[in-house]
Amino acid sequence: MNNFEFYNPTQIVFGKGQIEKLKDLIPTDKKILMIFGGGSIKNNGVYDQVKKSLMDHTLFEFGGIESNPKYETAIKAIELARAEKIDYLLAVGGGSVIDATKFISAAINFDGDAWDIPSKNATFENPLPFGTVLTLPATGSEMNCFSVMSKGSDKLGFGNPSLFPKFSILDPQVTYTLSEKQLGNGLVDAFVHTTEQYLTKDVNTPLQDRIAEGILQTLVEEADKVIHIKEDYESRANFMWSATMALNGLIGSGVVHDWATHMIGHELTALHGIDHGRSLAVVLPSLLRELKEQKKVKLLQFAQRVWGIEGGTPDERIEKAIVCMEDFFNKVGVPTKLKVYKITEDDLPTIVSALRSHIPANLGEAQNIDQDMVLRILKRAL
C-alpha cells in the first residue's frame, strides 16, 4: 500500500425528508445564494422544500447552471454574490451544479482572471463556505473537493482541500423524477469513477479493492430496479450512496490511480457535446482492451470477483469481463460506441490534438498513454 493522507470533513445527512434540516445546518445570520440548474427542482418539489426550510434565512437565487457548467454562467453568479455580499452558498442539484458552486466559492474573492484557477492552478484564498442538496447521484462531487468547469472547447478539472462541502443532504426520494437517461448516466459515472481507482496497478490494497468491488457489484445489482422501478426507495438509496462512496477519497487512498478514461472523455464532451457519463462508457472498454497486459492482474480479479468469471484462459476471462461491462452499460441505456454519436475516424485526430493541448503529459497509472495510444483507443471505440 502506498503512503497516503485521508481527509474528508463533509457532513452527510442521508435519508427521507432530510431537506428540512437545512435550517439547522446553515446559521441564520448568513446571506445565502442558492445555485441550481435548469429549473427541474421547481417541478419535483425540492425547491419548495428548500425554501420552506430556509424561510427564516436571507436567501437569494441563481439558476441556469448547465449540465457541463460554463465559466461564463458561473461568473454571473459571482457578480450577483459580490453585489449582495453573499457569505454562504447552497448548491441544489447534481454534480454540475455542485462543481459550479465550488468554482464560485473559489473565485469570489480571487483577484484576477478566475479561469486561471482551473487553467493555471492559481492559488485562491477565503473561499465561501457551501453546502449541497444532491438531486442526481453520479459524480461524487457532494463529498469531495474537486470540480470540472468548461470554457469554450476547454473542459478542465481542479481541486483544493478548502472546497469540500460543509454538508451534503442526500434524500433518495428526490431521484424519483429523474429520466432513465439521467439515471443511466449516473450509474455509469459512478462505475467508472470506481474503476479509475481499482483497475490499475496492484499495490496490495485488499481492503480498498473489496470496497471498490462492493460498489461495482451494488451498482450492477441495483441498476435494473433503479432504471425501471420509479419509486423503489431502497434501490435509489443504494445507488445514491454507492455514487458518493465511489469518489469521496476512501477507495482511492493508498492505491494507484488512472483517470485516462476521464481525460479522454472530457474532450468528447467539449468537442462533440456527449454527456459525461456517456463519454466514459465509450472510452473505458476500448482503453481496457488496449492496456489488458498492463492491467492484467486487476482485470482478472475484476473478472472473477465482480462478474464471477472462472473458466478459460486469462485473455478469455478478461475479454468476457469487458463484454459484461459493455453489456451493463448498454443495458442501462448508455451506448459504448462512437458511431452512435456520428463520430468518424476523420474526427479522431482533432480529439487527440485537443487532449494533448490540455494535458501535455502522457496519461494513465504508468504514464504511458501517449498520443498514438489515445488514437488507437478511440479507433477501437468506433
TL;DR?
With 382 residues, this protein is of the alpha/beta class. It has 14 helices and 8 strands.
What does this structure look like?
There is one protein chain. This protein is α/β, with parallel strands linked by helices. The chain folds into 2 domains: 11-173, Rossmann fold, CATH 3.40.50; 179-380, Dehydroquinate synthase-like, alpha domain. The protein has helices at residues 22-25, 46-53, 71-83, 95-107, 116-120, 180-198, 206-228, 233-245, 260-272, 276-290, 296-307, 314-331, 348-358, 371-380, and strands at residues 11-14, 31-35, 58-62, 88-93, 130-134, 146-151, 154-159, 167-170. The strands form 2 sheets. A 6-stranded parallel sheet has the order 1-8-5-4-2-3, with helices on both faces. Strands 6-7 form a two-stranded antiparallel sheet. Helix 2 (46-53) links the parallel strand 2 and strand 3 (58-62). Helix 6 runs antiparallel to helix 7. The mean pLDDT is 96.
